[in-house]
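RECORD TYPE: inverse folding
INPUT: structure tokens
STRUCTURE:
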């Protein structure tokens, strides 16, 4: 029996960006998926496809991405919704989380990084993660959610300050440590959470219950 391919929906009002991203994803080493496109939230939810992951532009005419998260979740309750934005600002991330977003990808990233992020979230939406072995190639294994219990207390405190928008310099001053030490702490936090950016780390922490909503000011 052949299992259906995972399904990905790209929602962006710029056709060139959608088509370019689709071509980029199709030509990458990403897990094979059915990729669909829509120029608006309304067009997206009108489609009959079941989707595992929705890549949603945060700023569109009419109903923007943040306002559309509720419609997306109503149409596809089990899908992951990841926001796309040309700006990687903490306030945008906080708004996206409050509206129910699963993740946040900056359009300013290099193409390879965007593909890697999409791959990451597609696999998470399937309850899988990618484990690359040089000898045997790619294998898929169940995801184990990151937890606060295995995050050292100091790193947890640093994570809370990241969520509040503090810089490495400000965090270092708060704890009386060097910026080098804080950079290492932040790198460890990102690795633990499977994140590439500080913004994504906070998103993942919220989605997995490591950071309560009250930790975001």
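DESIGNED SEQUENCE:
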């Amino acid at each position: 029996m052949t299992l259906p391919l995972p399904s990905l929906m790209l929602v962006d009002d710029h056709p060139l960006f959608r088509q370019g991203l689709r071509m980029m994803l199709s030509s990458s080493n990403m897990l094979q998926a059915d990729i669909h496109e829509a120029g608006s939230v309304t067009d997206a939810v009108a489609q009959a496809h079941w989707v595992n992951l929705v890549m949603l532009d945060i700023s569109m005419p009419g109903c923007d991405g943040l306002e559309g998260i509720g419609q997306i979740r109503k149409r596809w309750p089990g899908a992951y919704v990841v926001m796309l934005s040309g700006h990687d600002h903490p306030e945008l991330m906080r708004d996206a989380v409050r509206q129910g977003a699963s993740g946040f990808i900056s359009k300013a990233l290099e193409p390879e990084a965007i593909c890697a992020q999409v791959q990451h979230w597609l696999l998470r939406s399937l309850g899988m993660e990618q484990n690359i072995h040089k000898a045997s190639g790619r294998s898929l294994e169940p995801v184990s959610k990151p937890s606060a219990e295995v995050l050292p207390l100091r790193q947890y405190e640093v994570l809370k300050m990241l969520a509040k928008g503090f810089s490495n310099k400000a965090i270092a001053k708060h704890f009386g440590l060097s910026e080098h030490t804080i950079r290492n702490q932040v790198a460890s936090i990102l690795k633990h959470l499977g994140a590439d950016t500080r913004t994504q780390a906070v998103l993942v922490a919220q989605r997995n219950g490591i950071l309560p909503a009250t930790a975001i000011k």
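NOTES: The CA atoms of residues 7 and 51 lie 5 Å apart.
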